[in-house]
């Protein structure tokens, strides 16, 4: 081998070594990029690992926006303001609940005289315009609120999770709920209590819901366990005996 050939050989070997080193370095530098590719999880409808990691943080943020406790000042009235539990007053829980909501929205005080007068006026209106006043559905109660009081910003929310009770109360307005009265377990009810009942939710603290329950003279600020109340919520399905077949429903104030 000549001196020139020997030098050419050495240069060739060096080129091969340097080229190999460059290729290995490039592969090593590119490898971590693969870690950022979303991973499809089994049975998760193609949701990436990155998206899954974000979900708990977003949920925690929503919960932080709800105060630990709320109490809305709503004037109280029973459905029998003078303890006259006749056939009319035994059926007047929807009317009493609407009266409390109306006087809250207007910022007015309620007395037994005012509540009794409002109940009588409302029942007369229902009989004249609807033919009856007993056992109205949540949607019918909203219609009554608009027809009798001119309240146009109420809506019915159906099939909601129990956490929504707090969510809507945290907006600063009371809620009217229809319920299977005997599932509430209120010891102040007469006998077993009403098959079908309506009451006003005015706040919460922890797992307790604060209510204005018109079914008893001791109903102002009466508290129910949240699970007990939620399980008892049912819209009127057509007959009081079938109350447990009614949907979850609540009447809320639209903003």
Any guess at the CATH architecture? Answer: Alpha-Beta Complex
CATH first level? Alpha Beta
Number of domains: 1
Going by helix content, strand content and strand pairing, the class is alpha+beta
Helix content: 40-55%
| SS summary, helix count | 8
Q: What is the string of SSEs from the N terminus onward?
A: HHEHHHHEHEEEEHE
Q: Which word captures the global form? A: globular
Low-confidence stretches: 2-8, 20-62
In the CATH hierarchy, what is the superfamily?
Cysteine proteinases
Outline the structure in words:
There is one protein chain. The protein is of the alpha+beta class and 255 residues long. It has one domain (64-253): Cysteine proteinases (Cathepsin B, Chain A, Alpha-Beta Complex). It has eight helices and seven strands, in the order ααβααααβαββββαβ. It is globular and about 45 Å long. 31% of the residues are buried.
A few lines on this structure:
It is built from eight helices and seven strands, in the order ααβααααβαββββαβ. By secondary structure, it is an alpha+beta fold.
Keywords:
16% strand, 255 residues, alpha+beta, Cathepsin B, Chain A, 5-stranded antiparallel β-sheet, two-stranded antiparallel sheet, globular, disordered N terminus, single chain
Strand-helix topology:
Blueprint (H helix, E strand, L loop, with lengths): L2 H28 L18 H16 L4 E3 L15 H4 L2 H14 L5 H19 L7 H12 L4 E5 L4 H7 L5 E6 L15 E10 L2 E5 L7 E6 H7 L16 E5 L2
Antiparallel strand pairs: 1-4, 2-7, 3-4, 4-5, 5-6
């Amino acid at each position: 081998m000549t001196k020139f050939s020997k030098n050419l050989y050495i240069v060739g070997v060096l080129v091969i070594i340097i080229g190999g080193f460059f290729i290995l370095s490039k592969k090593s530098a590119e490898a971590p990029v693969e870690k950022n590719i979303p991973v499809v999880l089994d049975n998760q409808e193609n949701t990436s690992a990155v998206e899954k990691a974000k979900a708990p943080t977003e949920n925690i943020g929503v919960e932080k926006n709800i105060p630990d406790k709320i109490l809305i000042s709503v004037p109280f009235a029973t459905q029998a303001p003078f303890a006259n539990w006749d056939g009319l007053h035994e059926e007047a829980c929807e009317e009493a609940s609407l009266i409390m909501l109306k006087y809250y929205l207007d910022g007015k005080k309620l007395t037994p005289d005012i509540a009794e007068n409002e109940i009588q006026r409302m029942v007369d209106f229902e009989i004249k315009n609807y033919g009856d006043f007993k056992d109205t559905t949540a949607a019918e109660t909203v219609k009554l609120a608009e027809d009798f009081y001119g309240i146009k910003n109420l809506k019915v929310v159906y099939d909601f999770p129990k956490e929504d009770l707090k969510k809507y109360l945290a907006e600063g307005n009371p809620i009217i709920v229809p319920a299977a009265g005997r599932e509430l377990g209120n010891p102040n009810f007469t006998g077993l209590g009403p098959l079908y009942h309506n009451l006003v939710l005015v706040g919460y603290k922890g797992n307790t819901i604060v209510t204005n329950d018109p079914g008893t003279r001791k109903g102002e600020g009466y508290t129910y366990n949240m699970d007990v109340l939620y399980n008892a919520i049912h819209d009127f399905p057509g007959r009081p005996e079938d109350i447990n077949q009614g949907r979850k429903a609540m009447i809320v104030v639209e903003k």
